[in-house]
Amino acid sequence: MKPSTLMMGHGYDPALSEGSLKAPIFLTSTFAFESAAAGKRHFEGITGLREGGAEGLVYSRFNGPNQEILEDRLAIWDGAEDSLCFSSGMTAICVMMMAYCSAGDVIVHSGPLYAASEGFVAKILAKFGVKYIDFPAGATREQFEDVVAKAKDMATENGGKVAMIYLESPGNPTNALVDIEMVRDVRDAALPADCPIAIDNTFLGPLWQRPLEHGADIVCYSLTKYVGGHSDLVAGSIAGDEKWMKPVRMIRNTMGGIADPNTAWMLLRSLETVELRMQRAGENAAKVCEFLKKHPKVDGLGYLGMIEDDRQQDIYDRHCLGAGSTFSLFLKGGEEECFRFLDALKVAKLAVSLGGTETLASHPASMTHLSVPHARRQQLGISDALVRISIGIEDPEDLIADFDQALDAV
Ligand SMILES: Cc1ncc(COP(=O)(O)O)c(C=O)c1O
User: What integer is the mean pLDDT of 26-54?
Assistant: First the structure.
């Protein structure tokens, strides 16, 4: 069956919960064992003394019924064996990186990354002796091979290994795509197979890009965005083969960071409509961009449905199933013109984040990316004339009318 069908019932048996059609929210910190021997067996699994991991439910820092149903259903969307849910997208990304990196190791990552992901690598992992080297999202095979060769030299010098290749595609907020298949080919040729390729798929997943089919090993999400989809929760996840999830699960068991039962329940509700919401948002974005493209006050668009670069178009054609609904709008002028536009919006809300039912607009250079040094912002294409827009599921004519009147105010 298709994911949209499975979202209605997969992983849940009403007979185990008094016939309740929907899973109840299990608010409990601990679970009663059937016997002392069963309790011992559980802990042998959790501590790694017995192969096969935990069986059943033990304690709510490790797992819970709502979270387990959610993880089963999240794995379906990405065609993964297993998935782990977290209290935020950043918890998912940070715990995953900690699971794979030791002192002396090197992370190779694409740029730009979401600012907090970049900060975690450059400032926090650095405190534990982990180094990094980055490459531009649109890098060619030759450029990427060169970066991997440098990363191997750095790792040898530091007495460590190249521990992970971490991608974000499309990059935030420029929408530059990474060639995942090329990255996989270079990893296979130049690095051991136990160096995973992880990718943040928040902007296009789970509908419009399926990175595990193109060579990624681990896919990461801020579920706060399209998957949650209503701007009313914060959560994250990773998915992939069980062997990649295992070390991350061990650290989550120790540190915590699992999504709480209420949030997991809300995500189950969101997953029932994720396909409908994303399809509608994608259709709306195509109509809005068609209007914006022709407007005299618009300098350009960073929208995946209107790529102007042949290499980027080739990556899009191989990797993407849709152009998404989050894009960059470049206005003629700079910060002043962008602020006038943003302040005049009536339907679209002025807020950071993306992927919700409502349309949001923000100014990355003065908001989400203010902490990025000016020179690096210019290098990444985050100019003062850039407004980031995430289109929601409103009526498209109302959205176009709103952007039209806001552009009049510029
Ligand atoms: C691409 C991307 N990855 C990760 C995150 C972090 O997610 P969260 O806010 O759920 O921690 C964000 C948040 O904006 C994001 O845009």
Answer: 88
